Amino acid sequence: MLDGVKVTWLGHATFLIETPEGKKILIDPWLAGNPSCPAEFHDVEVDAILITHGHGDHIGDVFTAHERCAGPIVGIFDLTTWLGIKGVPSEKLVGMNKGGRTQLEGLDVEVVMTDARHSSSFVDDGQVVYLGEAAGFVLRFSNGSSLYIAGDTSVFGDMALIARLEKPDAAILPIGDLFTMDPKAAAVAAELLGVKTVIPCHYGTFGLLTGTPDQLATELAALNLDVAVLSGAPGSTLG
């Protein structure tokens, strides 16, 4: 899929990505609180953290995970500002916005922040706190391969612009329905993105999330798309 890059699904929408140089990037740190995350990953040590948005099922363990992160913590500016207020060291925080591009210091990875269609907030002391807009990322590695991480989103036509500008090789797409795309919409997203590999996420954690990888494969076939679906149990390295 991405030669030299390892992608391990930790359940729900949390991923551990290992670069060709062996650096580890944690996507959306929901670990100990995540009923799907294997216990051996609850205290994982990483070199960077990327956060797509501020819902609890994506940042639920950020306030402990940041202590085990040796490098930058990247998110949309509103979210990283709030994390700083809540005690995450400012020198670790990298706030950016959609369309922005940055290099992860010491990791030889370029990050582009993309659009996503979703909300973003956190309940803090009984109050709902707005944390900016939801976002996605494209990661480009030292070997030239690139991975699109959609975050929580519906399908949207400007995924074609992500394809045009960033040319991702593979995509992590939510498929669970209700809060994100369902498998049919995710298949259309794969078509717009022009990717050859999809890793599904945001499914199976709760009964409300009804989409499955098999349904995604069926919908891709219905569109006559030659796209591989990589899935497995939480804790599996998928690529």
CATH class: Alpha Beta
User: Can you say what the CATH homologous superfamily is?
Assistant: Ribonuclease Z/Hydroxyacylglutathione hydrolase-like
Read across the widest sheet, the strand sequence of neighbours is: 7-8-11-12-13-14-15
**Cα-to-Cα separation, first versus last residue:** 6 Å
* CATH third-level topology: Metallo-beta-lactamase, Chain A
Mean pLDDT: 97
Largest sheet: 7 strands, mixed
The CATH architecture comes to 4-Layer Sandwich
Helix content, binned percent: 10-25%
The rough form would be described as: globular
- Tell me the radius of gyration: 16 Å
Class by alpha and beta content: alpha/beta
The tally of strands reads 15
Q: Low-confidence parts, pLDDT < 50 over ≥5 residues?
A: none
- Tell me the strand percentage band: 25-35%
Task: Write up what this structure looks like.
With 239 residues, the chain is α/β, with parallel strands linked by helices. Helix content is 19%, strand content 27%. The protein has helices at 56-59, 62-65, 77-85, 159-166, 183-193, 213-222, and strands at 6-9, 15-18, 24-27, 48-50, 73-76, 93-96, 101-104, 109-115, 121-124, 127-130, 135-140, 146-149, 170-174, 197-201, 228-229. Helix 5 links the parallel strand 13 and strand 14. Helix 5 (183-193) crosses helix 6 (213-222).
Question: Which tags fit this structure?
Answer:
single chain, 239 residues, alpha/beta, Metallo-beta-lactamase, Chain A, seven-stranded mixed beta sheet, six-stranded mixed beta sheet, 6 helices, globular
Write the layout of secondary structure elements.
Layout lengths: L5 E4 L5 E4 L5 E4 L20 E3 L5 H4 L2 H4 L7 E4 H9 L7 E4 L4 E4 L4 E7 L5 E4 L2 E4 L4 E6 L5 E4 L9 H8 L3 E5 L8 H11 L3 E5 L11 H10 L5 E2 L10
Parallel strand pairs: 3-4, 4-5, 5-6, 12-13, 13-14, 14-15
Antiparallel strand pairs: 1-2, 2-3, 7-8, 8-11, 9-10, 11-12
